[in-house]
Design brief:
The chain is an alpha+beta fold. It has eight helices and eight strands. This is SRPBCC family protein.
């Protein structure tokens, strides 16, 4: 993937930080919206078919139906809360040691809208409880950069069936620049949502160091 491709993908996604209410209480949201040049049924299948989801995101197992549970090969897991093909999917999203002790603290919802030209408007909203431990350090970039990377992979998968190797891409010059610019973009969303310049700058710095550490830090 060329540097131009990376910059084009970054500009194709609109990012916003907002608020929501979860079963566990007040939450902040990481919201990503973009267009895919693919039919809504194809995009829906790519995000719900275990075989296709495993190719661009991570291998998935579980009872994949409304009310069932899922597990990704990476630790993320949860319950399927809403499933309305081919428009809406909502799941609880738990990750990390002890996450199951705080149910209702994290949810991901994907909304698809068919376009007039056979394309699809894609919106992903990840709501996380205000008290979750990552936000004070990383801000919305904690999950936002990761979702940017996954949507970049989905773009490649939908366009030509190719799967981006996250590990190789992440250490490439283009991948490191993508992560740096994604972290900065989430900093802009954080600032627009009312974050103080000092807090935002610290969060962007921490997020950048996590996703694109300097050679000395690796």
């Amino acid at each position: 993937m060329t540097m131009k491709d990376v910059l084009d993908e970054l500009s194709a996604t609109r990012r916003k930080m907002g608020t929501a209410t979860l079963p566990a209480g007040e939450a902040y949201t990481m919201e990503l919206r973009r267009r895919y040049d693919a039919h809504v049924d194809d995009v829906w299948d790519a995000i719900t078919s275990p075989e296709r989801l495993s190719r661009w995101m991570k291998p998935v197992t579980g009872d994949l139906r409304l009310g069932g549970t899922f597990q990704l090969d990476g630790g993320e897991h949860g319950e399927i809360l809403r499933c309305e093909p081919p428009r809406l999917l909502r799941v609880s999203w738990m990750f990390g040691p002890g996450a199951d002790e705080w149910p209702g603290t994290s949810e991901v919802e994907v909304r698809l809208s068919p376009g007039s030209a056979g394309d699809t408007e894609f919106e992903l909203v990840h709501a996380a409880a205000v008290g979750e431990p990552m936000f004070p350090t990383y801000g919305p970039g904690a999950g936002g950069v990761g979702w940017d990377l996954h949507l970049l992979t989905l773009t490649s998968f939908l366009s030509d069936g190719e799967v981006l190797d996250h590990e190789k891409f992440g250490t490439s010059p283009a991948g490191r620049e993508f992560s740096r610019r994604s972290a900065a973009a989430w900093g802009e969303a954080h600032l627009a949502a009312g974050g103080t310049p000092t807090d935002v700058a610290a969060a962007v710095k921490a997020t950048t160091a996590f996703y694109a550490p300097t050679e000395d830090a690796q």
